[in-house]
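Aim 2 progress update. The chain analyzed this quarter is reproduced below.
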Amino acid sequence: MNSHVSAASPASAVASAEARVAAYDWKALAGELDSFGCAVLTKLLAPEECRAIAGLYPDESHFRSHVLMARHGFGKGEYRYFRYPLPDLLGGLRTVLYPHLADVANEWNVRMGIDERYPDEHASFLKQCHAAGQMRPTPLLLQYVPGDFNCLHQDLYGDLAFPIQVAILLSEPGRDFTGGEFALTEQRPRMQSRVEVVPLRQGDAVAFAVHNRPVRGPKGNYRVNLRHGVSRVRSGMRHTVGIIFHDAR
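Predicted structure tokens:
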């Protein structure tokens, strides 16, 4: 495996990820998630880390399954789900991003009147997933070529689904590919749907609501339904890594 991805031990990878994740203004990011359903973490990965992760795609030994989107009506393009153990860098990021997002998720559940609360540590949440029969890792690496797109969807995978996930763009727009914008739609009760197109550069990550989130209205909080997708790639090749925090059945 490429040294930029997995030269460090899992413990040192977590420590490295913790330092870079702690450097963000999480109060501001939580505010953006609360206001728009998404927030951008600029330059979460360095260019060489992006290239190293994208470079894993052809090597099937890193993955548990390969999905061709067109076969399932998901769009056009393909992706591979990582197997355990995850590459150290991705495993470290999954571990240290989770507590910041769990704070937001728990506040959302309070406002939506949902009883479920997420534990402080990701390992504890994964134990809950595994006890519920959700054992398969969900982080994935996506690859798009010209004409490919990802239909609007929600990544749920089982009864236990963490309500926020993170996608990291590994390719540079305008150099490696054109088109392929990340889009988020929000279906609001008795109103037209709202669309958020999120501009990203190589190494930028977007954290976004997977399914529902609360919105404050004049009569209190109401629940909106979200879906996300990727517009048509016009040229080149686009790679993205998705960090989903719950495991799948």
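The chain has one domain: 3-243. DSSP finds seven helices and 15 strands in the chain. These observations will guide the mutagenesis experiments scheduled for the next reporting period.
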